[in-house]
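Supplementary notes for students who missed Thursday's class. We covered one full example, reproduced here. Read the sequence, then the structure, then the short commentary at the end.
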Amino acid sequence: MKKKSLLLVVGLLVLSLLAGCGGGSTTTDNEEDKTSGVPTVGVIQYAPHPSLDNCYKGFLEGLAEGGFDKDAVQIDFQNAQGDAANSDMMAKNMVSNNVDMIVGIATPAAMSAYSASKGQDIPVVFTAVSDPLAAGIVQDMAKSGTNAVGSADVLPLEQQMKMIRAFLPEGKKIGILYTTSEPNSVSHLEKFKELAPTYDFEIVEVGVTNASEVASGAEALVAKEVDCINNFTDNNVVNNLSSVLQAAEKAKIPVFGSEIEQVKNGCMASESIDYLALGRETGRMAAKILKGEAKPQDLAVFEVEESTPVYNEEVMKKLGIALPEALKDAQVVK
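Structure (token representation):
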């Protein structure tokens, strides 16, 4: 019996030594990345729609231009699927994992990242945030003043309204479907209301709170006899664009989008900004921060200034609407 006990003790000692030599380490992947000098960047994309996909693609390109290609940085990409609770949880987990930076693509994701990182030494970089001031994530557009900075997809709302007037010279009512919890949509709506009298339009609005209300909200706008529906960069509405297009098609009225991907997907036209370019600018900014060449609080928010009119020729034909002379140089998409 004593011989068996001795063999058992020896066996346990051998197993213990083997565990100490490998495989038993509690070091996390993130800790290993930090030890190797490779920064970790958590990315939260709020919803899976094309404009935000373009932002992420552009971000990676800009990051690589700044010296952080796929071998020089560890990316933890997560998609919140249009759910604010998911976005909040992802941001909190990234803070717990002590990432070197959190990137928020779209306003709700940026707000989640900013809220979770408060009091932590983690910079936040955002893109596709239309109104960072209204969202409460920066103190000033010229100098952020917080741990968050990035790029704003400020929509060319007056050019958009001019476009709608050119397409619909007899039109009176523009329908707006927006999500009441998205600060960018609220601020866009207020600006559109201010512009409307100048172009002899009435704004008819319907607010929704979640994805399940988009279809009924679109139908409510149609019931109010609007001449068209105009989309902003409202993530909830854009993520459920098919419901809006279906309601508009039944009423035989056009839907105007806020960027080219919406026009490709069935909107008739848009004064479009370049989300790939917006993402690239954000990536370059993130690279500077990761290198220690700049701090978020000292940087200005980048605001896109250029836009391009685009239209869907197939949708125009279905609606029997001709291209206005004022838009003869616009870009056609199919």
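Commentary. The chain has a mean pLDDT of 89. The first strand starts at residue 40 and ends at 45. If anything here is unclear, bring it to office hours.
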